[in-house]
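Before a colleague's protein record goes any further, I have to sign it off. What it holds is a sequence and that sequence's fold in token form. Would you go through it and say whether the fold makes sense for this chain? The record follows directly below this note.
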Amino acid sequence: MSILNYLKILIFYIFYGKVEKVISAKDNPDIKTIKVTLEEKYSYNIFEIKNAILYNASVHDCAIIFENKLVDEVSYQYRYNKKIEIINGPSLENISLKIGTPRIRKKIPANIFSMLTGGGGKHNYHHWLYDVLPRIAILENTKNFTTPDYYLVPSLKHPYQRQTLEKLNIPFSKILDSKKYKHLYCDKLIVTDHPYVFNNNPTQSILNIPQWIIYWLKVKFEDNELKSDKFSKKIYIDRVDSRNRRERFIINNKEVKECLKKLGFQTVVLSEHPFTTQVEIFKNSELIVGLHGSGLSNVLFSKPGTKVIELQSLSAGDIYRNLSLQCNLDYKRISIASKNSNLTHQQGSIEVDLNELKKLIFDK
């Protein structure tokens, strides 16, 4: 640690004090815990903490502090385990216990609902859709639900973030971007359990999204009538817009697109379209082909029976297979050994066998 950083930490210790230890919300009578059950089998806690402090250090660490003590159940500190899986590490590893809260604190005399989630919630469409937004459903299912004064979200950088919140009728004036509000004090902070992580292992939990989340998203975002017929019923999702396009891509992508075009497919770059149009594209489609990635998160908007063909590396996993099956879709995939042996999990470049792809397309 540099001398400058050490002095910065020391100065903020003097201003705000040191985060002393970890406490349990459930064992503290000053912190209100509300139980919510969804789909008759998923139980969630909603915590209401008066005079709370929130310190959002990074995408991996968020400290929620009550009387200079870190609150265990509502703080997070994501780390990799020995299997290179993301887990929520022990609260004692939270960065606030090591360096305090070295940022200017903003006082907001209001009730704030935190939708922060860590991991990919800030910049990943899939995690925004399934990790961040469903927290609203959990909150709205409380008895005597009262609308919060503000909603604290991981980011407002991407159009889909602003568009989905607008679709949920949340006024922009009531939304706080965590990029600006990294350290705040409020009258009451409201936090929910994670919508689908029940075993402290997000890497495993993401494989099985609760059905209520899928249903809630469909109800909130699907329109009864299609507004446009300009898109083909056969689409190819091109990931040229992806943040991970250099780590995960199709080597012969040009040939894949040419092959599919001859079969009546339309190539779609999803980021070029508003969120509501993306919903329409998937609702209208009968056959969807795409490389493993967040674009396939939209299959939940597809009609039952829609054929989905996922192109993936061998290590990409079953996220979209399981999601497609939950949505009663006709799921197929081509799994190919990555050309990049140094890249793990979802990453890696693959070369698609065009004959195998055509066989799956025509397979009944």
